[in-house]
Amino acid sequence: MASVAVGAASVVPSSARTKLLVQALENSGRVASAQRFAAELRRWAAQGRPYRGQVFQPEEVEAAISTLAGRHRSEDAKGAQPVVIDSKKQELNKKSSSSSAAPPSTTLCGGKSNSGNSDFARSSAKEFGEAADSARITNKAFPRVEVHDSAWPPFEVSVAAAETVQALGKLPEGASAGFANSGLLDGLYSLTRRRVNGSNNDDKHPNADVQIETLEGVKIHAHRALLSAVSEMFKCKFQGSFGDATAGVVDASQFQAEVVGAAVKFTYLGKCRVNVADLGVLYILADMWQFSLLAQAVSRCWAQLPIVRGLQALASLDPDMLLPGALISSLVNIVAESLDKVSTVLVPAAAPPPVLEPGQEPVIPQVNPLTQPAVGWRFVREFHDILAGMSPKELGQLRYWVSQEPMFGDTAVKFMAGALSGAHVATPEDMKRLCSKHLKSWLPEEHLCRVVKCACEAVGLADERGQAHAWLRWSFTGCPSFSTLWRLYGVLQEHQQGLLEAPPIAAEGTAPPAPVHEFPEAITRGFAVA
Questions:
Q1: DSSP string, 88-130
Q2: Which helix (H) or strand (E) covers residue 273, if one does?
Q3: d(C-alpha 67, C-alpha 20), whole Å
Q4: How far is the C-alpha of 322 from the C-alpha of 338, rounded, in Å?
Q5: How far is CA 140 from CA 258, 274, 335, 365, 391, in A?
Q6: What spatial distance separates the first Cα and last Cα of the chain, rounded to whole Å?
Q7: How far is 528 from 521, CA to CA, in rounded Å?
Q8: Span 17-35, pLDDT tens digits
Q9: Which one of 115, 246, 343, 450 is at 20 to 30 Å from 13 when CA atoms are compared?
Q10: 310: nearest Cα among 145, 125, 110
Q11: Distance between CA 42 and CA 48 in Å, rounded?
């Protein structure tokens, strides 16, 4: 089987090319991600579109898919769960039965998608009464974070910098051949950004020999020696004998100029600042370019995000983005663990009374202010404000991850149930935020029902006098739809019916349980008005 590598330095053996594809499929993580990625690889091969700088033949893609499927069949025989990837025949049958209209094109930096995951996000946005394709680009309001490598520059980059300066002219004082100081790299980077004839978008740049084309049509300039030092893909491209090896043009038209510019800046300086919402896209670009140092730096930045920034990053992740499952899981764990900690702070458990010896004076325990509900409610306020600033699309994507990641879904329910359980100590302003639509907008309907069930079990519906508890106001305010409202009302009715059929029994030596009152009329009125 012939191997074709457009833009590569040499023809890579077919077995190595197949191995590269198999590894990419394995790194996609989940079953759904592997299936989507296999379909993308088939489409790119059919269109002659490069992946990691190489154009793969359809036969090579099918060989990689068959290899991965064979591995998982053997694992299944040992008790492991297989990853099922549709065969080419199934895909062709699926295409033939579908409409002949061409599907919307998809870009890695966000765009229309034909997948079920994007359908989930869009339908979820519509459920909350807003257009899915909002004209407001809210990720512009997301903060910027720094991606950096403290050990920069590696030796290869230093050598490439010195060679580049020598090619351009006299080597500045203080920089020796074979080793470049940070000032030399700063100077080279500034050359790529220098305006030519009053424009940053000229096709030719006298101080750079590479131009990178981006989504918006902006051309970003760089030096091939530096790019080759950090990327195996560029090393193959620029040191090869193919026609585009001397052209010095790189097609990155799937990516926004800001993301491409950040990757180029990292090449020179070992650091860059990007929008939180662009972290995932930057990782995909680094993976496509085989820029491992940048990919590792993005992963480290990702793992160090605080809870609020992690939530924003998760909301920015389109389910169709081809990110490794481990990377997504690390972000989910950050958010889930933080929510779990906050949920324990909102309503701290009462400490048991101390056992005193005869004649011993009771000691007033010291209270840690960081464990008080006030800290939890401060987070609830910040959490509300972050959700209020998200677009319907971002909220839809957040609901998707809540529904798909069990750990995230469980801690989200625990967090909201903790907030409701502590509603009796909330200030009027905090209660207003709690009952707004924003603190419902990030949860799927099934998880909203679970929150209500947990609150019913933890607090109940009414106090000793038969008055409805404060948290119940949340159940009928800010609901996204009538169907959700009706389901939540049904959960409350089901809980009340369970109490009537099996009243709680006091354990031996404990006080008798509170009497079971009738279903509070205030709840029925609240749902009727809503």
A1: HHHHHHHHHHS-SSPPPP--TTS----SHHHHHHHHHHHHTTS
A2: strand 271-275
A3: 12
A4: 26
A5: 12, 11, 21, 47, 11
A6: 66
A7: 11
A8: 777 777 777 665 555 556 6
A9: 246
A10: 145
A11: 10
Contact 219, 183 (CB under 8 A): no
Residues of the chain with pLDDT under 70: 1-14, 26-37, 52-53, 71-141, 170-182, 194-206, 240-246, 347-372, 503-517, 530
Inter-residue contact 9 to 235 (CB < 8 Å): yes
User: What residues contact 479, with CB distance under 8 A and at least 6 apart?
Assistant: 437, 440, 485, 488, 530
DSSP state letter for 217: S
Beta strands, E only, 129-218: 144-148, 210-213
The neighbour count for residue 336, using CB atoms within 10 Å, is 24
Q: What is the dihedral of CA 491, 492, 497, 503, to 10 degrees?
A: 120
Tokens encoding 332:
């989910």
* pLDDT one-digit tens code per residue, 436-481: 999 999 999 999 999 999 999 888 888 877 788 889 899 988 888 8
Write the CB contacts of 120 (distance below 8 Å, at least 6 apart in sequence): 319, 396, 399, 400, 403
Whether 286 contacts 234, CB under 8 Å:
no
Tokens representing residue 453 in the block? 């069930």
For 289-346, write each residue's pLDDT tens digit.
999 999 999 989 888 888 888 888 888 888 777 777 777 888 888 888 889 888 887 8
What φ, ψ does residue 146 adopt, rounded to 5°? -100, 130
Name the nearest CA neighbour of 34 among 9, 66, 65.
65
**Tokens representing residue 424 in the block:** 């009796």
DSSP 460: -
Query: Residue 228 half-sphere exposure, CB side, CA atoms within 13 Å?
Result: 20
Indicate the length of the chain as a whole number: 530
Task: Name the token pair of 162.
Answer: 């010195």
Tokens (6 digits) for 472 = 């119940």
Contact 308, 300 (CB under 8 A): no
pTM exceeding 0.70: no
Burial 382-396 (b: 16+ CB within 10 A, else e): ebbebbeebbbbbbb
Cα(530)–Cα(526) distance, rounded to whole angstroms? Answer: 6
Q: Give the C-alpha separation, 445 to 452, whole Å.
A: 11
- Contacts of residue 415, defined as CB under 8 A and 6 or more positions apart, other chains included, come to 339, 340, 342, 343, 346
